[in-house]
Every structure is written in structure tokens, then in C-alpha cells.
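WARN no homologs supplied; continuing
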Amino acid sequence: MSVKAPPKGQRIDFRVSTEIKALFSRAAELTGSSLTSFVIEAARERARLVLAEHDRIVLDNQARDAFLKMLESPPAPNAALRRATKKYAVK
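OK structure emitted
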């Protein structure tokens, strides 16, 4: 599967060892991609995974139950929250 390089824009320069470049080059060749396209697509996919993992909140059963309980019966607003509500209330 060939992946086209995106239009030229920002540039990222980095150095890698001979072994890493050979690894990337071989993988790019096997996929029918240019080295640049292969590295960009691999980095893009890894970035998406990292961001998805970062944006997801995973709770254990105890934390989930506590969270749901708070949603079902939240505590009464404290003084600071009441002041903030008055300060930012739309009039």
C-alpha cells in the first residue's frame, strides 16, 4: 500500500543511526512507500495512539462507583462555588 507524502509544509529534521535508517528503509520498501511517507505515517499513527490514550480516563471499579455516586447525588455547593455562580451568572 502506497502512502503519498502530504503537501510540503513544515520541516522536521532529525538524525538516526544507520541501523534505524536501514530498518525504516526496509519497512518502507516492503509497503511500497517512500522513506519519508513511511516515517510520517508511522509517526502520525503513534501520535494518534498516544493522544487517544491520554484523552481517555480509565477508572477501576471503586473509582467508577464513587464517580457515579457523586453524579447521582452531588454535594451541596460550598461558599466558593456560590460566589463564583453569582460572579459569572448571565444577567
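Residues 18-88 form one domain.
OK
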